[in-house]
Each structure stands twice: as structure tokens, then as C-alpha cells.
Amino acid sequence: YQNEEISVPDYTETALITDAFNKMLSRMKTLDESRNEFVSNVSHELKTPLTSMKVLADSLVGQEGVPEELYQEFMSDITAEIDRENKIITDLLSLVKLDKKAADLNVEHLNINQLLEDILKRLRPIADKRHIDLILDSFRPVEADVDEVKFTLAISNLVENGIKYNVDDGWVRVTLDADHKYFYVKVADSGMGIPEESIGRIFERFYRVDKSHSKEIGGTGLGLAITRSAVTKHHGNIQVESKEGEGTTFTVRIPLSYIP
Ligand code: ADP
Known about the structure:
Elements: H1 11-58, H2 68-99, E1 107-111, H3 112-129, E2 133-138, E3 143-147, H4 148-164, E4 171-178, E5 182-189, H5 196-199, H6 211-216, H7 223-233, E6 237-243, E7 247-255
Parallel strand pairs: 2-4
Antiparallel strand pairs: 1-3, 4-5, 5-7, 6-7
Bound molecules: adenosine-5'-diphosphate.
């Protein structure tokens, strides 16, 4: 038995351990706080459409002789609020699924040019309504390992935003390029841009630059959080550049081969 092998921690070691312990505690506190904040945000977001529906329904219940036109108007407002509630829940479920540790990617070797074409084809009717040009520039054929559903969700959200936060007669340009290791999808638009002070926050859940405006154009504030989460799952990253009044460009970079 060699006594000198049991070393009593000296002062610096004790200080280091205490420091590490305090750091861990503060991290746990932050996690707890951000979870509470998330739950309170979710509750708030889900309650808003419910409150509107309640007000609309209450003003019809028990009322006799409501003019047909007014009745129709209230009913269509209620339907719009139901759609909104539905969109929030769908987005939340996508996000929760993506955030799960066990949520593995269902990776396949796919033609990315084709996937982007399909995304634009699906969104073209929405863009056409506001005469927004959807352009696809593919610099080369790209095949890569992606989860079709999650990749499509990530890029669709960016293109949808490019349309939503655009001006009538504007454009959204999707560019595909690759090098020997990564492929790059750029989604650029001619829209309103993002104020500098908001750029750092747009990927946060429920964050919207202009709440009332976003509500008008049908945002939940979850789209970019979903996109970032899906891109990160592919071991990729996403960057944004924007200038108010000129437009925004998101660049997604994803490795060509997936290593779990
Ligand atoms: P939302 O559902 O509100 O669109 P997102 O998470 O997709 O939520 O985006 C968060 C916010 O970032 C939006 O509310 C909007 O203010 C801003 N934003 C996102 N994309 C763009 C864009 N292409 N141009 C201008 N603003 C954008």
C-alpha cells in the first residue's frame, strides 16, 4: 500500500472542481429556463388563435337574425384561425421530431437537382399569385446523401420565406453548386430584407421580426428553427446575409456523404 498514491486535491484542484461544478449548475439552470420559456411560448402561440375563435364564436352564439354576410365573414375568420392553429401544431411536431436525439436520418443517395426542381414546382403556384419569379440555377449535377423529407422541409421553408417576405413582381433564386466535399444551396430573394439587429435572432423558435406583419402573411416563427435543425442533422450549416429593402440570401452547406 503506497500512501503517496492517494493525493489530496490541493487548493487549485479544489477550485477547478468547484468551478466546473458551478458551470454545470448554471448550464442546467439555463436549460431549465429555456425549456420553461419554450413551454410558455408554445402555450401563448396556441392560445392566440383560440382566443380569436372564442370571441368570434361568442358573438354569433344566441344571436338571432345575424345577417348572412356577417355570419359568413365570421365563419371564414374562424376557419382561418383553425388553419393557423393547425400550422403551429404541425410545425411544432416537426421541430420536436427533429430535436429528438434518437431521430436518425433516413439517408438516401439522391439527385439534389431533381429535389430542388420538385420543391420549386410545388411552390410555383404560390409565387405566381404575386408574380414572383422562382428561378433555379444548377451549376452542376449533384448527388448526395440526404433525408428526402427533412431536406425538402429545410429548403422549402427558405423558399417559402423568400416568397412571403418579398415584394410583388420580385424574384427568388435558388442556386446549387458543389465542391469535392460539400454541396451548397443558396436561396436569395429580392424582398424586404432583415434588420441588422434581428439577424442574430431569426433562427430562434417563435422569433419574428414584425409580429403583426408576420401574422398577416401567415408565419409561425418556427420555419427557420426547423430548417436549421434539419440542416444540422445532416452535419451541415446555414448562413444568412441580408440588407433591408434589398433582399436576403441564405446559404446551406451540406456534406455530400453522410457519416452518422
Ligand atoms: P415565420 O413562420 O414567421 O416566417 P421563420 O422562422 O421562418 O418564421 O422566420 C422568422 C422571421 O425571420 C420571420 O418572421 C421574418 O421576420 C424573418 N425572415 C425569414 N426569412 C426572411 C426573408 N427571406 N426575408 C425577410 N425576412 C425573413
